[in-house]
Amino acid sequence: MKLRIMRFEEIDFTDQDNTILIIKNHKFYAHILSLLSSILYDKNKSTELLVIDGEKNITTNILLITDLYKIDFNDKNLLKEIYSQISKSITSDEEKCMRYQELVDDLSAILENELEDYNLEFDYKNDLTIENYLKAVSLKISRKAEEKLYDRLMNYVELVTELVKKPVLVLYNCFDYLDDEELMELIKYKNYKHLHLLFIENKNREVDSIAFRKYIIDEDLCEDYDKIEEVQSD
What we know:
single chain, 234 residues, alpha/beta, five-stranded parallel β-sheet, four-stranded antiparallel β-sheet, 6 helices
């Protein structure tokens, strides 16, 4: 997996490397965040920034976390996958599938009876798919407000690795909120699950016992090649 930012060195991050991009220029740091958000959420296209898998530019399986306090468990990509898995589970079971269709038929019969009271003709679809039903009832994931920040992040990462095919997770400015032990546990889980994860921070921080591949863009928007290194743990 690679992150390409126009005019800068290509950033490699595999499912086993611990890679961090440090952008010390605050204005450019905010610009890259805005650009990522625009590409992923607003579906805007840009040649300034690309995420490459092999030779293909990807966007659909990338999840961006910019605020650990506002992790979106109901991201539309996650909900879409949950709906799909529930639908497959029901349709693959003949008894459940027949029961669901009976319920849809019952609802259609009730609606037809109600429409007879109007001197009008109506047109509607009576094939209510399971996924459309789940959307109609607004099925969502609920979380406890008192959940610890680290636990919330790990629950989200676990959910992503279970639901999303070959997910790519970008964590923006998370080092200020996690201690060394929590970062170590996150890294262990990431490597165990072969998760492509890229940290993007605006300042350097040494973490004991974690080897990071560092890409640094300094305050003058120059790459500090002397500090692009892999720090070896003891």
